[in-house]
Amino acid sequence: QGAVDTQKIETRIKVVNPDDPEPSINLYVENQADHAMRLVTEMMVLCGEVIATFGSPNNIPLPYRGQPQSNIDVSAFAHLPEGPVRTAAITKILRAAEIDFRKPIRHGILGLPGYVQFTSPIRRYLDLLAHYQVSVFLHFT
């Protein structure tokens, strides 16, 4: 449905015993193309699509997140090496995300007609807000 695959390899820094005068600093690479990471990512996206699909016909005000379709010709990046360099170049030209609390908006990068970030209520306030909205709806219907 027009989704853009932006598999990334991200570097992480972990400081062990930061109060130590000479803390141990570990650098490692997190490959988001790993099968387990891809499965978790797909399940998170599926959850966001389900919440949007449930929220819309029930008129639940949710932080519907969308991103205008960026008509990207991936072949234009074929000269770049496959991997982090190509992914960074594609990601850089993507259009900014938008949020609408009334109705779903198309998420062109995910290729979905509607999407709500819902899976991280501990670290993202809008996810927590979405949980409250769905919870209240379910409680009073």
From TrEMBL:
Q: Which residues form the RNB domain?
A: 2-138
Domain of life the protein comes from: Eukaryota
Give the residues annotated as coiled coil. Answer: none
Q: Name one GO biological process term.
A: mRNA catabolic process
Q: Which GO terms describe its cellular component?
A: P-body
UniProt xrefs under Pfam families: RNB
Which GO terms label this protein's molecular function in UniProt? 3'-5'-RNA exonuclease activity; RNA binding
| PANTHER family in the cross-refs | RIBONUCLEASE (PTHR23355), RIBONUCLEASE II, CHLOROPLASTIC_MITOCHONDRIAL (PTHR23355:SF42)
This chain belongs to which protein, by name?
RNB domain-containing protein
